[in-house]
């Protein structure tokens, strides 16, 4: 370092490397947990579509309003997400809730992607101030890799939002009332294919969340060594000459 680095700049960098490092420890885990929830939804939808492609059970349907519909229900979907088609009811409330959950995840993902993208643009623009700190010369690649990883993560999270929204759009396009489903399944069975497609979109979003977590986790060591070097510089400046 050719001259004493401004103390306020070093303090700001130390603060950022400490707290954002801790923040990213959460985001290297949380998306994986969200992915598990999405996979549960996907498995429930796959189970329904699989059931609807199987032969209809032989026997007389019970016409009581709250009786379960044997030709529409899939035990796996009921166990995973509580989805239960009843003879005298409309769209199962659990399907409605599943779609609401997808849109909530989508909104959160888009918001996170937008915020993170803006933050990384700011960090990228500010990063050249580090060029004049000679003691950080060998770690400039690490710092820029952190920014690049997070910038890529922002794009991934934005894409997750789009994919989940589109899966919910497709599910909205399906009439899940028992009467309409039976009419479709007796003919073109387009509903089955739409459910499969929506489940595949959800699977894709789940995989993308895993990619996001992996990118964030890749920063772990980079944050640690960069923070340690900054601390050394600060300590050296505070030692009386």
Structural summary, described in words:
It contains 8 helices and no strands. With 241 residues, the protein is mostly helical. It has one domain. Helix 1 (7-27) runs antiparallel to helix 8 and helix 2 runs antiparallel to helix 7.
Distance between the termini: 16 Å
Q: What gross morphology would you assign?
A: rod-shaped
pLDDT < 50 stretches: none
Q: Structural class of the secondary elements?
A: mainly alpha
Radius of gyration over alpha carbons? 26 Å
Report the average pLDDT across residues. Answer: 90
How many domain units? 1
E-strand count: 0
Number of helix segments? 8
Comma- or semicolon-separated keywords:
241 residues, mainly alpha, 72% helix, 8 helices
Topology, element by element:
Elements: H1 7-27, H2 30-53, H3 75-81, H4 93-126, H5 140-172, H6 178-185, H7 190-217, H8 220-238
Structure, briefly:
With 241 residues, the protein is mainly alpha-helical. Helix content is 72%, strand content 0%.
């Amino acid at each position: 370092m050719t001259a004493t680095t401004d103390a306020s700049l070093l303090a700001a960098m130390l603060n950022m490397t400490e707290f954002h490092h801790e923040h990213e420890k959460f985001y290297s885990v949380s998306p994986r947990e969200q992915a598990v929830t999405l996979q549960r939804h996907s498995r429930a939808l796959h189970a329904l579509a699989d059931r609807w492609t199987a032969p209809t059970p032989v026997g007389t349907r019970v016409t009581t309003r709250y009786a379960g519909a044997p030709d529409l229900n899939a035990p796996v979907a009921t166990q995973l997400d509580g989805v239960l088609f009843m003879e005298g009811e409309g769209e199962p409330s659990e399907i409605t809730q599943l779609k609401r959950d997808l849109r909530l995840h989508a909104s959160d993902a888009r918001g996170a992607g937008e915020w993170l993208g803006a933050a990384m643009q700011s960090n990228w623009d500010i990063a050249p101030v580090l060029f004049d700190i000679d003691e950080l010369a060998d770690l400039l690649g690490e710092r820029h890799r952190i920014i690049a990883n997070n910038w890529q993560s922002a794009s991934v999270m934005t894409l997750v939002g789009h994919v989940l929204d589109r899966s919910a759009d497709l599910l909205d396009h399906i009439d899940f009332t028992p009467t309409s489903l039976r009419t479709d399944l007796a003919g073109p069975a387009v509903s089955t294919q739409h459910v499969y497609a929506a489940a595949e979109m959800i699977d894709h979003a789940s995989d993308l969340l895993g990619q996001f977590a992996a990118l964030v986790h890749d920063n772990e060591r980079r944050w640690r060594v960069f923070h340690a070097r900054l601390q050394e510089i600060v300590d050296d400046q505070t030692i009386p000459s």
